[in-house]
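Progress note, project year one: complex with NDP.
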Amino acid sequence: MPKTPVTVIGLGPMGATMAATFLEHGHPTTVWNRTAAKAAPLVEKGATLAATPAEALAASELVVISQTDYTAMYDSLKDSTHALKGRVLANLSSGSPDELRRAGDWASGHGAELLTGGIMVPPPGIGKPGSYVFYSGQEKTLDAHRETLRALGDITFVGTDVGLAMLYYQAQLYLFWSTTTAYMHALALVGSAGVSGEQFRPFGTALVSALAGDGPMGYLRIITEEVDSGLSPGADNTLRMQAVGAGHVVEAGQEAGIDTTGPTALKDLFWRAVDMGHGDGGLSSVFEAIRAPAT
Ligand code: NDP
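Model obtained:
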């Protein structure tokens, strides 16, 4: 059975790999990029280079967009809005949820439909086992294009509000960046005393694995249960004790001569939760300070 045609707009590292993946799966693939030269390797593999964004839109009902941000989409399509009618724009670019909601209105105002996606792998992971994409928008539209989009990774539908895909995506990114940055801080801290990264890695690995586990350090489960129940017992490790400890992490960084921006922000957040009255609660009561930003 012939495969459904697809258009890819944006040929940065992500979009180019997406287009190559569609080609590998046998989809007739049309591409457009502001800098047309980036299409050359894809044309060699069988892609069609559209001369204009309007031509790219005309080529396929499903138009996958992967650009730096949503401004790039408007810049690319603003002179081709007449060609948007009947198209499904699956935009997998980064943005804020409200920006995506505005883009949904913009698309429907031109007779198109926006599906939003947050893709959770870097270019080499696209279409490979473990790759997944958070999608939001109309589920029946996603279902209609499921077979094509499945080439990029597992499809995780998170809701009809087009902002949701980016809420999940940004939540995951913050978890990823804060964890990896905290690990770099740990390496710099022990490195200041001549401890190598490889000497420390087993301890970092054990801690991160334990956080996701079911043991006494299984804090993803513990915090989820406490946040959901609204109960954060301090028991034998109160938040006040941990706020004092967070201050020592800052002091250790200062003594080591490394940047302490991250630990200082953490310490300040802990103390704000203590000042809100959660000093005798547990670690999860920091959630209350996160939900109530400082004015
Ligand atoms: P970039 O974020 O660098 O995107 C580059 C693409 O955006 C190019 O096609 C570029 O065109 C286009 N672009 C940027 N500004 C404009 C504009 N004003 N008008 C027209 N086109 C524009 O590269 P990536 O491919 O890495 O990322 C794409 C998206 O995927 C981003 O939103 C990113 O956050 C997200 N993402 C990236 C991951 C990664 O590991 N790289 C992982 C998961 C998501 P030109 O070639 O002409 O400059």
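Residues 182 and 262 are 8 Å apart (CA to CA).
The longest helix spans residues 164-191.
No further modelling is planned for this target in the current period.
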